[in-house]
Amino acid sequence: MRNALGTAVVFVVLLLAWEALHLVVANSSLPSPGTTLVQLVALFGDPDFWKHASQTSQAFAVAVVLSTAGGIALGVLLGMNRVAGTVAEPILVNLYSLPKVTLYPVVLLIFGLGISARIAFGIMHGLIPLTLFTMNAILQMKPVYRRSAAVMGLTPWQTSLTVVLPAILPEVITGARLGVSLCLLGVLIGEMFASRNGLGYMVMHAMERGDMPTVLAVALLLAIVALLLNAVLLMLDRAWRH
Amino acid sequence: MTVVALAEVASVMPADDHHARLAGVTRVFGRPGSPNCVHALGPIDLDLRRGEFFSVVGPSGCGKSTLLDVLAGLAKPTEGTAEFEGRPIDGVPAGVGVVFQEDASFPWLTVADNVAFGLRRAGVDAAEVTRRVDYAVGFMGLKAFAGAYPAQLSGGMRQRVCIARTLVMQPRLILLDEPFGALDQQTRLLMGDELLRLWRETSATVLLITHALDEAAMLSDRVGVMSARPGVFIDVLETGWDVDRDSRIVSHPRFGDLTGHLWEKLRAESLKHMREN
């Protein structure tokens, strides 16, 4: 109850700040929350919007599934093999801190101008954090869990599925929370360049036309989607940690 | 499963039956000759009699836990042989249960599910799992907490969960690696009583690793005293307690003698360890 109240207060304060900012800066460059909402509702009635949204959703969904599966698999592999993990960690961290957008032309050359380039770019953003979180979760798992599994006569497969996986799940979910929002970021950035569809393209196109209400409406929608996804994963996390 | 029935079974077995045996066991970490090669243990000779309560005391770092690892099949001896029930130990032998020093309860499972864990993985049928888990949970005084998660329990209660988890597997040899090391003195004494009760009820052979001399003196039939690294047995002491002893024997004059004798043996070794570190 207090939590819900706190969230409501934060939202009201954010809305007021937005409104205030709108009044301070020139009217046209930052539409008010009201105008944005009206534009968002209008977008919902526009078939063009749904075409773009479905493009983004598709790319996002595929990128999330692939980077989650790949990130966990890679993380488990590197975590189980201490030497591989020690070698891979600095490489992954450095690779990750590279501004990936500079590599986007390369991605485009490899994957072409279609949806696969955006999926690949989404994975490039989402995969590494999840790999690192999973790997570290395994490296930091209490050794006594694995020893217990061994003395209870578990096979390596049983140990992975019924001990290691549940033990690292909280960290994996934390990694997934980061990975999912970064995947969305990657897909949207991908849509902003050399693209004719998707919400990223829609934002760029609206910007060129000076259609700020559309830019903000799409941004607002994406923020809500990202927050909801995060909330769902947080709930999973809470349900798991007792 | 009644106490009487188990006691009868125990009386049938010859008292000098060797349950587990270590002969000339050493454990060396690292490549021999390399600068970070550590001779951790041995050579160790140990005959565990079936049904006895054997404690191992020794200075920190003397290889006590390594000794337990060898018996549990978690570590291979560098030299020498390890046997359990007449067969060489290769991997974790069936019939051996281990309780570790650290809290090994799984935080994602309830107490009852923690206790049932090993049985379920072993494919024991559901009715049998329920029966054995109910028994073990009741025996360890966890009935009221069966549905609770480890995070809701104290350290002592969590260690009970781990003991119950070992108990349900009906081990014939129970290895305990300083299981009460993290608990306060009063709780440790009471847990010692529980351990004695469990030992009598299951008639299993128990090997307890501990750094607490009073614990060893109170609980054991025999106490092995280990030297500083590389650990070897420098003395094995018969305590001569009755089978139905409990923590109240700490007021027995012999308890003081035993503890004193253990310390006498151990003092020089502990000093050696302290000077070297």
Automatic annotation (TrEMBL), chain A:
User: Membrane-spanning residues where?
Assistant: 59-79, 91-113, 119-139, 175-194, 215-236
Q: GO CC annotation: what is one?
A: plasma membrane
Q: Where does this one sit in the cell?
A: Cell membrane
Give a yes or no for keyword Iron in this entry: no
**PROSITE patterns recorded for this chain?**
ABC_TM1
**Classification via Pfam families:** BPD_transp_1 (PF00528)
Q: Which UniProt keywords apply?
A: Cell membrane, Membrane, Transmembrane, Transmembrane helix, Transport
Record domain ABC transmembrane type-1: where = 53-233
Kindly state a single biological-process term from the GO annotations of this entry. Answer: transmembrane transport
Q: How does it sit in the membrane?
A: Multi-pass membrane protein
Signal peptide region:
none
**Coiled coil: which residue ranges?**
none
KW tRNA-binding (keyword) present = no
CDD domains in the record, alphabetically? TM_PBP2 (cd06261)
Could you say which protein family the record assigns here? Belongs to the binding-protein-dependent transport system permease family.
Protein known as = Nitrate ABC transporter permease
* Native source species: Rhodoplanes roseus
UniProtKB/TrEMBL annotation, chain B:
The family database entries (PROSITE patterns) matched by this protein are listed as: ABC_TRANSPORTER_1, ABC_TRANSPORTER_2
* MF terms in GO: ATP binding; ATP hydrolysis activity
InterPro entries per record = AAA+_ATPase, ABC_transporter-like_ATP-bd, ABC_transporter-like_CS, ABC_transporter_ATP-bind, P-loop_NTPase
The alphabetized UniProt keywords are: ATP-binding, Nucleotide-binding, Transport
Asked if the record carries the keyword Cell membrane, the reply is no
The protein's superkingdom reads Bacteria
Gene3D superfamilies with a match to the protein in the record: P-loop containing nucleotide triphosphate hydrolases
Q: Which residues cross the membrane?
A: none
Q: Which residues form the ABC transporter domain?
A: 20-253
The text of the family note is: Belongs to the ABC transporter superfamily.
Q: From the Swiss-Prot or TrEMBL record, give the protein name.
A: Nitrate/sulfonate/bicarbonate ABC transporter ATP-binding protein
